[in-house]
Amino acid sequence: MTYVHPTTNLTEETPHQIMERSTPWFSIGFLNLINCFSILDAKERQIDVHFVSSTYRNRIKSLAKLVRDGYSFYLIASESNLRYFFGYAGRSFERFSCGLISSDGEKSAIIVPELDRKKAEQSFAQMILSWTDNETYKPALNKAVSELAIEEGTIGCEDSLTLGMMESLKVVLPGIRFRSVSKAIERLRMKKDEFELRSVRNASRILVTCYSMAEKLIKPGVRECDVANSIKNFLLAQGAKSVNFCAIQSGRNGAIPHLESTPKRIERGDMVIVDVSMTSNDGYFADLTRTYSVGKASSLQREIYEIVKAAQCVAFKEARIGTPSDLVDRSARRVIEEAGYGKFFIHRTGHGLGLDVHEPPWISHGNKEKLANGMVFTIEPGIYLPRKFGVRIEDDVAIEDERPVMISQRLERDLREI
Fold it and tell me: Across-strand partners of 3?
């Protein structure tokens, strides 16, 4: 794996070789972070390592600062947060794995199954401890507790921590208490830095390319699932790391927003929703939706499409820095309600994007979180007429330089009759 170093240009050193020549422990993962922008050319990847390392280290420092005192250590268990704080992109399924951070943010460790150790070695954790299926995780966890000088007290953990994980920790630390720090983590992750914004833009740039292909694939007689499989394979060939969701919903299926693609054959006169989300190599999501008409759209189909398009346009204009998230939702909802279709807009207007496809900020009723620079989210109003059809238009938006920027602006928003 290749890393960029500001004084040696391109090298072939691994993280451990870098460590051997006394690179500070916290920069290892940052060098790996630089490398992960694989769809950029070598020149673009020659980024100032010191700047990257400082930015990444501040994530941990900021967590400790936000939650203040009262915690013995922080435990990170979800895949996206392990990646956010450690640069670790492994997946251990049912096996015990977690990241530990000392209360002051100065020390860290990752505990993983032995079969994931090589992936963990590409992270920036100060210590990597592993265990095999022939032994238990307890010796590794005990060592981490000892090395990080952790004492029994309160663990700052995520809301998603499972009961099984809690019971596992109590075996080693019987007197520990659990307290959520999820809100603090959410506040950190809501505001993307320049590397994260670049990652989302890269993902969006790849995702946009599949929609011209979708127009060629969507024909009367073709099955929804076959179109979906072709789009997935196309995106993987274009550089997508994973295709998280690919829904082709034709005709009455389009009125069921989260319905997976089915063997239903597309018919002339159908409205077809194409909703796809994917990640680029560094794990950040893009999520886009377009709706097409197979053949000439009926007057009702066109009416519904134009209402949804107008609602999205109004919401985008409302999405300025300092605007409460629920005001953006309300502006889109008002357009649809005034057109007489309010009861058919059955979901929030949008959601945040990042290492998770759905994360804060929620563009929804009652959310007073004010939009700020660095936030990335979708705007995706829709109307769903039961047993008839649905229409949704979804774009990815970032707040940059105090204004909204439509990341997916190259994608056509007018109704396409194919």
Answer: 11
